[in-house]
Amino acid sequence: MSTYTCRAATTPLDATVAIPGSKSLTNRALVCAALADGTSILSNVLIAEDTMLMIEALRALAISITLDGPGATCEVTGCRGHIPESEADLFCGNSGTTIRFLTALTAIGEGAYRLDGVARMRRRPIGELGAVLQTLGAGIEYHGDEGFPPLTVHASGLRGGSVSFSSPQSSQMVSALLLAAAYANRDVFIEIEGVVPSSPFLRMTTAVMEQFGVSVIAGRTPTLRYIVESSQRYRATTLAIEPDASNATYFLAAPVVAGGRVTVRGLGRRSVQGDVGFVRVLERMGCTTAQAAAETTVIGPPAGQLLHGIDIDLNDMPDTVPTLAVLALLADSPTTIRNVANLRVKETDRLAALTIELRKLGAEVDEQADGLVIRPPRRLIPASIETYDDHRMAMSFALAGLKCPGLRIENPECCSKTFPDFFDRWEAMLRGPSVSSF
Predict the structure, then answer these.
(1) Half-sphere exposure of 229 toward its Cβ, with a 13 Å CA cutoff?
(2) pLDDT tens digits for 320-372?
(3) Which CATH number goes with the domain that contains 146?
(4) How many angstroms separate the CA atoms of 390 and 15, rounded?
(5) Which residues pair with 155 in a beta bridge?
(6) Which of 13, 137, 227, 312 is 20 to 30 Å apart from 334, CA to CA?
């Protein structure tokens, strides 16, 4: 395990940055393309641990996938809704999208499919998805704790019908069912009661499905409801994957810390990703932002002006919590982050991890059941930051390093989950516009 030693920004930033493709969009597109009629071409796919886990698992199901890594292009020949293999062991690492999407996808098949991952994956819930798949005709066998991986899907096709979720712990449960639902024998009616964390990801899911030719009827009466008609099938398409909006937040937040401006190419107001809305959070803290159709710029506050502490519900954008939590170290007043209890079942318990590491830098942190209250320190204290094998911990604390030279980030390689060359691009951003565009 190595260590990354941060260096402070000595001048205001002036950079245009390219971000690799979205993990969430890549894995959704791979599922649709795998089930589709014909051969799809996906460009700007993310080449990282989470997406390679999905690709290798689909290959284990005998889906033909050709990957051009340097060109970030993927050619997927769909199985026309008929999964070729009747038995497979699918390793999903610590990728929530991979294990949840594949649990639903394999339920379409005919046979037995075992899904497992690393030790942390065995603490990430999947029981709500398993229950609705059982209602639709799948057999779900848990090999450890009930409702958690490892599990085997005993599949004989999905019969369709009505199912419901009640305040699911992850929107990925609902997205997984939506992606598979068109291949049920009858229409699938989905009702969701209560609050869905990361609900914009559901809109992302239906948008990708529509790009592959499957329409979803959505409504609220007052509960959120979806209807997926079984007469539809995915059609092969050519699709360019947007840059990852969650990973873009670290670069967009950099001028908030160091001053100057940063522009992210390919990500603007037309994005289907909910986390592109993080620019509104930065505005509330005192920054200036500008969004074109496919470009976003953030300009830091004037020299000498501190950020404003804010009180915010981030249930729709929980992946941005580590970014905001680190920015809160530099605010003029406390910051309160609410309604993000689902962060406790991510790659690590992010609320607990953030509490420990923010305190190392001098902050006073009240850890609550579903959020954090962060009181900024008078000055940052250089420290060694543990990352808990969590990519978002490593990337977010790089922001603190812009103001705290000597801050060390342990195990920066954990960024390989979604952004393998993050620190290379981070250093390029610090060097300026002539070398920061990739």
Answers:
(1) 9
(2) 999 999 999 999 999 999 999 999 999 999 999 999 999 999 999 999 999 99
(3) 3.65.10.10
(4) 26
(5) 111
(6) 13
